[in-house]
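Quick review question:
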């Protein structure tokens, strides 16, 4: 069936609070981004929907204006646990709005994909501050943004306080060696994260060596992806050896909630 008709059917199920609608896919497609009127409908439906747990609304280029329309519905909703809003041009202003929402502590959302939203240091820092009080999020993906040293520093500090986040996506942020010390601090102090994605960040052997030393001191991390950087195969092999230590898996024995609950970020997850 045509994608537009499929979208309309999904919207009708959302508005009618159809118990069979566990997940909704409203991702944008060529020439058919969600309109403001559709966003108003979605926001209104979210206020009363009590069944849907997963919402994919990426690639619609809704921007700050569109997100401000959607946000009241997200605030009122108590069932959504997975939110995919990748590639929506939220920018720092949209990220700050999201941060204010996450800081309220009323959201059930566990997993958020913010891939390619033009989020810089200001937006990332705002979300980091929200993580200091948010106890629900398990996974957040900042891949393909530009959060910079300031954003990484804020996240590293927040994750010395936060004890719920288990997976953090920082790939493709052009962090470079100047951010290695901040990430190393995070690795040395946080005992909740089990998965961090650092690929395609312009790390060299210098920065990678700092990260490796910090990883040796961390016994809870089970996955650290750092491929597609300026790192030798020998050093990459050392990362694999450290991560393969059986003690890391043993540290999570008996836990039932260590991996992200989400299927997102789909193709972006490494």
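Suggested answer, residue by residue:
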């Amino acid at each position: 069936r045509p994608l537009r008709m499929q979208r309309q059917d999904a919207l009708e199920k959302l508005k009618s609070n159809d118990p069979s609608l566990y997940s909704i896919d409203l991702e944008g497609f060529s020439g058919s981004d969600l309109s403001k009127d559709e966003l108003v409908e979605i926001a209104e439906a979210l206020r009363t929907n009590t069944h849907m747990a997963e919402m994919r609304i990426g690639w619609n280029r809704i921007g700050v204006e569109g997100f401000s329309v959607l946000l009241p519905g997200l605030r009122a909703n108590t069932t959504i646990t997975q939110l995919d809003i990748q590639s929506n041009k939220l920018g720092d202003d949209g990220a700050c709005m999201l941060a204010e929402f996450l800081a309220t502590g009323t959201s059930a959302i566990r997993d958020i994909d913010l891939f390619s939203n033009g989020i810089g240091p200001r937006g990332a820092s705002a979300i980091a501050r929200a993580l200091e009080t948010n106890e629900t999020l398990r996974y957040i993906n900042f891949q393909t943004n530009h959060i910079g040293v300031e954003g990484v520093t804020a996240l590293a500090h927040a994750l010395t306080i936060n004890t719920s986040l288990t997976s953090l996506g920082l790939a493709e942020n052009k962090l470079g060696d100047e951010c290695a010390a901040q990430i190393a601090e995070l690795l040395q102090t946080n005992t909740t994260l089990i998965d961090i994605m650092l690929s395609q960040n312009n790390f060299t052997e210098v920065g990678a060596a700092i990260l490796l030393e910090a990883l040796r001191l961390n016994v809870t991390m089970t996955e650290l992806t750092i491929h597609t950087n300026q790192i030798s195969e020998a050093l990459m092999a050392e990362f694999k050896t450290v991560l393969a230590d059986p003690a890391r898996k043993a540290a999570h024995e008996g836990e039932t909630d260590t991996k992200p609950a989400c299927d997102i970020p789909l193709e972006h997850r490494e």
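Why it works: The mean pLDDT is 91. The CA atoms of residues 46 and 74 lie 6 Å apart.
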